[in-house]
Design a protein that fits this description.
mainly alpha, Proteasome_assmbl_chaperone_2, PSMG2_sf, 5 strands, Rossmann fold, about 150 residues, single chain, elongated, 3-stranded mixed sheet, two-stranded antiparallel sheet
Length: about 150
């Protein structure tokens, strides 16, 4: 449970593993009830459980214990389903910030770069699968007969 001020709590279901576009939904943690409502209305999901470490975790922890006069903190967590650097998560975060704050940001360069990298990853995966398939086929061939040796 993430406490969103004034004792209100929010729960979420896990994003389905079979979701067609893992980059469609960001996760968030916020101390600002209004921001939580806005993010939820936009279709994004609050973090239910987990650990946030490092500077982000320290800032978030401090914001939960700070006085109510301090500015609220919101952390946006872009998905990273491929576990390698990927601009699609950054693109989601930038688009979300653009939408929340009505910013005039041109994301065309980032979109082009994200697509290029995604295509390169797909091609690399296809090449690896082809190499594995070729090696399996070679390994499954019968050994040459040595009956005349």
């Amino acid at each position: 449970m993430i406490e969103l001020g004034r004792g209100e709590e929010t729960t979420t279901d896990q994003i389905a593993d079979d979701q067609k576009d893992p980059y469609a939904v960001a996760r968030y943690i916020t101390c600002d009830l209004e921001m939580a409502k806005k993010l939820k209305e936009l279709g994004h999901k609050p973090v239910k459980t987990g650990q946030i470490i490092g500077l982000t975790g320290a800032i978030l922890s401090f914001s939960y214990t700070a006085s109510s006069d301090d500015p609220p903190v919101t952390v946006l967590l872009a998905p990273d389903p491929v576990k390698i650097p990927d601009q699609r998560g950054a693109l989601l975060a930038v688009r979300l910030l653009r939408e929340i704050f009505a910013l005039d940001l041109d994301t065309s360069t980032l979109e082009t770069e994200a697509k290029r990298l995604a295509d390169k990853i797909k091609a690399t995966i296809a090449d690896i699968k082809e190499q594995i398939s070729s090696q399996v086929q070679r390994a499954s061939r019968p050994a040459p007969s040595n009956m005349y040796l």
